[in-house]
TrEMBL record:
Pfam families in the cross-refs: DUF4902 (PF16245)
Gene3D superfamilies given in the database record: 3.10.450.610
Species in which this protein is naturally found: Massilia atriviolacea
InterPro entries listed in its UniProt record: RsaM-like
Protein name: DUF4902 domain-containing protein
Length: 129
């Protein structure tokens, strides 16, 4: 259901039935820091955007940071999500932006988004021969 403010209105129960589909991800293209007397600590950050299944107008995006050790690379959500979703109670009362954003963040943290995002990044930024 759409609201007058162009939000997709869902209950928390409905949100947990949504199947997200990866739309796009990318790296933040920051200007490199000047090198002064040695290496500069840096981080790799980016963004990802997901939609609902075909025909759904739902959109959720967030920023992430790449973390790595000797054995693996993983992505960690580092921002609150932005979305066109407004969560409602079963009686159709809006929960409001702060509560919706917090519940969307918890929802995202329960979704396995990292592998698909990394695969997309590898394809998008692969070196051309």
């Amino acid at each position: 259901m759409m609201s007058d403010a162009d939000y997709i209105c869902l209950t928390a129960t409905q949100l947990h039935t949504v199947r997200l589909v990866h739309c796009i991800s990318g790296l933040d293209e920051d200007t490199p820091l000047p090198l002064v007397g040695g290496a500069v600590q840096t981080t790799i950050t980016g963004y990802t955007e997901w939609t609902g299944v075909a025909g759904s107008l739902l959109s959720i995006g967030w920023d992430w940071q790449m973390l790595a050790d000797r054995h693996s690379v993983l992505l960690k959500r580092v921002s609150m999500p932005s979305s066109n979703v407004m969560l409602h109670t079963a009686s159709h009362a809006a929960l409001g932006a702060p509560a919706t954003t917090g519940l969307l963040a918890s929802f995202i943290d329960g979704v396995a988004w990292q592998d698909q995002t990394l695969q997309h990044l590898r394809r998008r930024y692969a070196a051309s021969p």
